[in-house]
Amino acid sequence: MNPDTMTVDECREWIALDDGYKPTGYQGQFAMKYSKQEPNGEIAYYADATQPTIDCAARCMPKEFWYKVCVNPNGRVDAYAERGFTSIDVAATDELTARYRLAVKCRMALKTWNE
Question: How many domains does the structure of the chain reveal?
Fold first, then answer.
């Protein structure tokens, strides 16, 4: 998937899988859509792994990055992240999408660097 064109829901799904959540296959309003093995060995079930909020999107950002989000007067939202001499940027029409796209793109970069 291309993080520059992902929706918020696609970003949330990608981050959930990256964090070790597994889809249960259950669908519906009250379904427990994800499971994850807890440190004590038990399997826990979750309706959502991440919430569609700006705070949750910020928590999904890797700690290794410094970042900022700029809301422009023309309605475009630009988000930038830096780590050392590497910079990553995304654009969107709203802040929530920009933050989630940036989190996914930074996580993808970390995976590439750690291989």
Answer: 1
Give dist(CA 91, CA 66) in Å, integer. Answer: 17
- pTM: predicted TM-score of the whole model, two decimal places: 0.86
In three-state secondary structure terms, 65 is coil
Q: Quick check: is 15 in a domain?
A: yes
Task: Give the pLDDT confidence of 43-80 residue by residue, as tens digits.
Answer: 888 888 888 999 999 999 999 999 999 999 998 999 99
**Structural domain harbouring 99:** 8-113
CA neighbor of 49 nearest in space, from 27, 23, 25, 29: 23
Please calculate the CA angle 84-85-87 and round it to the nearest 5 degrees.
100
Residues near 32 by beta carbon (within 8 Å), at least 6 away in sequence: 24, 26, 45, 46, 47
* Nearest alpha carbon to residue 93 among 76, 110, 79, 72: 76
The Cα–Cα gap between 38 and 27 comes to 22
In this structure, is residue 2 part of a structural domain? no
